Amino acid sequence: MTSVPSSSTRDALGRPLVAVTGAGVVTSLGQGKADNWSALTQGRSGVHRITRFSTDNLRTTIAATVDYVEGAVSSAPFLSEKLAVLAAGEAIAQSGIGTPGDFPGALFIAVPPVEMEWPQRIALARASGRTDDITYADLLRAAGSGAFSAWHDLFLFGTVAEHIAERFGTRGSPISLSTACSSGATAIQLGVEAIRRGETQAALAIGTDGSVHAEALIRFSLLSALSTHNDDPAGASRPFSKNRDGFVMGEGAGAFVLEDYDAARARGATILGIVAGCGERGDGFHRTRTSPDGGPAIAAIREAVSDAGLTPDDIDYINAHGTSTPENDKMESLACLAVFGERMNAASGSLPISSNKSMIGHTLTAAGAVEAVFSLLTILNGRLPPTINYELPDPAIGLDVVPNTARDATVSRVLSNSFGFGGQNTCLVITAEPGA
């Protein structure tokens, strides 16, 4: 089956096409689509040494942090909210939907898991007046008093969503979600499905993450997941390379304004693209690892392509999950080979795949949304972002990774992969507007 004919505003299953009418993004490379796209296609890295907190005695001292946002040194939920506001504001402004503060649709937002961080715990412990045997109840009592009372709301999981809903005036109860590294893609998927079911004609889908702090670095280091290539920050994230040694934490946010295609056209909106397919499969193999055989990832890819009414031969480019960890890159390669076959071989050059994480690091909860925005920009600009730092190819991964230099290409259909810890696998197919 090929793409939906240009005369149709419904997909092959009779569901409304879901249009993207606005997109916004913020990463360590800059704020907004223009700055990010320029940096990506120049192959510029946003990874740098961490300066906003002490990294003494840490195994990893680099990250792709967003340090130019006011309040970036504050807690993870505070920064995550700031980043979400920037991305959503850009997306809504581009879409021209509604009026300021009155978004005529639902909110789906992926936010990082929220818990009290070490600086706050230490402050509460001191405020409790106890020097030893401090209990959780002591911390709660301290948190509910005086200057610390605001922390109660700050570290509740749904607070960021409530604040975003209030700021932009979205309709109904906001949906907060966390599906590990696929969260941003899941937020988009939920928005797409709500529009397809006729529950809303518009949705604001966001993925955001500003959670680079010492505790997070230590936790990922204990899992041996992070790169320790500290001497060369820009060269640390090396997806699909033989000498890859782990991912680099990143921060950012991505947002889409999604609309029923007919409703968007009726109000004269510019259609940027279509979220044509979504695929999701869970994997109970391990709490952090995905199945080495790639079974659930393969199923998620196939489901996304089929949901879009396409065949594997219709896909023009793959925006890889591409974390730069030894296990994930190998698994993703196997999964893509299983679905797309010989088209994936670098020698054929017929189906390129590249990883934005080589430049922006792994933005974790935000990654699926950030990379969906970049997938859309790939279609709109006809240019493939490269996988930088690809100096030592892995002979076990013989893919066309668009090494080191961006490439012009005609792209109408992109598969964007997101494979998260604990086997959360979500894939999106984004296409050009029918007839464009």
Q: How would you sum up this structure in a few lines?
A:
With 436 residues, the protein is an alpha/beta fold.
Keywords, separated by commas or semicolons:
13 helices; single chain; eleven-stranded mixed β-sheet; two-stranded antiparallel ribbon; 436 residues
Description:
- It is a single chain.
- This protein starts with 17 loop residues before the first strand and ends in a 5-residue tail after the last strand.
- The protein is globular and about 70 Å long.
- 55% of the residues are buried.
- The strands form three sheets. Strands 1, 2, 5, 6, 7, 8, 9, 10, 11, 14 and 15 form an eleven-stranded mixed β-sheet that branches.
- It has 13 helices and 15 strands.
- With 436 residues, it is of the alpha/beta class.
- Helix 10 packs across helix 11 (326-340).
- It folds into two domains: 18-115 and 155-431, Peroxisomal Thiolase, Chain A, domain 1 (3-Layer(aba) Sandwich); 119-153, no CATH class.
- Its EC number is 2.3.1.179.
- It comes from Pseudochelatococcus lubricantis.
- Keywords: Acyltransferase, Transferase.
- This is 3-oxoacyl-[acyl-carrier-protein] synthase II.
- It is an enzyme of class 2 (transferase).
